[in-house]
Specification:
With 147 residues, the chain is α+β, with helices and mostly antiparallel strands. The chain is built from 5 helices and 8 strands. A hairpin with a 5-residue loop joins strand 3 and strand 4.
Length: 147
């Protein structure tokens, strides 16, 4: 089984930028769900892969975009201002090669951020050394506190 890590993030925008850069490329997609009413993704290259209203969450919008190196800047231009990525976007995920590699839930809640194997422990350790991440736990370590 491949290792999953649970991440406690200090600098949320810097973490998102770093992970987007690391995972961008062919067969990579980023999904945002939440209040996207102030976001205009028309500058993002290509057509959004999907966009729909999630009725269970009173009109929360879900958008899936191709995550290419060219799309990183226009995507960030929409989600970073006014701390949207932390206060208005509830969930973020990145899928690469048909596997979820990043899951951020509940507005970057400490216990709702996990990464899969394409983000190596070396990459995560570098982010920790740079002060972007506070703590890295294996899946077993994170779950042990609840047992």
């Amino acid at each position: 089984m491949e290792q999953i890590y649970w991440i406690n993030v200090r600098d949320k925008p810097a973490f998102l930028v770093a992970v987007m850069k690391e995972l961008s490329g062919d067969e990579s997609y980023i999904e945002f769900q939440g209040d996207l009413s102030r976001c205009d993704f028309s500058d993002v290259g290509g057509v959004p892969v999907a966009a729909d209203v999630n009725r269970r969450d009173k009109g929360a919008l879900k958008v899936v975009l191709a995550l290419t190196t060219e799309n990183i800047k226009p995507i960030l231009k929409q989600v970073l201002p006014e701390a949207r990525v932390v206060h208005q976007i509830e969930d973020i995920s990145i899928i690469k090669n048909n596997e979820e590699q990043l899951l951020i839930g509940d507005y970057f809640h400490n216990e709702c951020i996990s990464v899969a194997p394409m983000l190596s422990i070396e990459f995560l350790s570098t982010l920790k050394e740079n002060g972007i991440i506070r703590k890295i736990q294996t899946d077993a370590e994170a779950k042990a506190k609840y047992l």
